Amino acid sequence: DQQVKQNSPSLSVQEGRISILNCDYTNSMFDYFLWYKKYPAEGPTFLISISSIKDKNEDGRFTVFLNKSAKHLSLHIVPSQPGDSAVYFCAASAGAGSYQLTFGKGTKLSVIP
Amino acid sequence: DGGITQSPKYLFRKEGQNVTLSCEQNLNHDAMYWYRQDPGQGLRLIYYSQIVNDFQKGDIAEGYSVSREKKESFPLTVTSAQKNPTAFYLCASSKGDRVTGELFFGEGSRLTVL
After folding, report:
1. How far apart are CA B94 and CA A73, in angstroms?
2. Cα dihedral A79/A84/A87/A93 (nearest 10)
């Protein structure tokens, strides 16, 4: 039973355009959400996060939107750059006392120059 | 530089052999984790440790063992009981405060069983 779903295995976007990566979750106990970026043969690196008390968090070119009623979040990258080409993982955490993150399967983003 | 060091980067093992993956961090983080990644899959939690001399099973702990004798070190042993050990293994750490959930990952160890 997958609690965090990234239904698009891959996405291709032209350089300079917007990239939108989507994530759905089923566990209503999740209250903190994170995006990680991963290059091949490397460990993931933290990108941006959002608490369930917010519906938007922005950091430079990256913005995460959270729709709690739909149990859906999205990561927007504007403008997309070739260096953004990587696998993006959505992750969720349930409660301040939880040490466990549940990850989605990832979406491979390719930004075409 | 502060960070997490995993070794070896590549490891080959014959069936029936145990193998230990090393993970060291100098970030002074209290919590450490082991994740496994398979092709086309998300990261799945094997074990985690909140403090020294304490650890808990994650979602897929069967066939694995860990120890946490020092704050800096969290080695993972893949035993012969693990049915499908070939995978990419990632070690991570975080500050004790889990509110943010941010993990810092090592570069990973790729284990191949021959």
Report:
1. 23
2. -60
The answer, for B85 touching chain A at a CB cutoff of 8 Å, is no
In sequence order, what are the residues at sequence separation of 6 or more whose Cβ sits closer than 8 angstroms to the Cβ of residue B84? none
Q: CA-to-CA distance for A17 and B86, rounded, in angstroms? A: 38
**Cβ–Cβ under 8 Å, residues A76 and A84:** no
* Dist CA B40 CA A20 (whole Å): 20
Q: pLDDT tens digit string along A3-29?
A: 999 999 999 999 999 999 999 999 999
Closest Cα in chain A, distance from residue B29 (Å)? 13
Find the residue in B nearest to A43 (Cα).
B107
One DSSP character per residue, A48-107 reads EEEETT-SEEEETTEEEEEETTTTEEEEEESS--GGG-EEEEEEEE-STT---EEE---E
Could you tell me if A48 and A61 are in contact, meaning their C-beta atoms sit under 8 angstroms apart?
no
Cβ atoms B4, B74 nearer than 8 A: no
> Is there a contact between B45 and A96 if contact means CB atoms under 8 Å apart?
no
The structure tokens listed for A110 are 């390719």
pLDDT of residue B1: 64
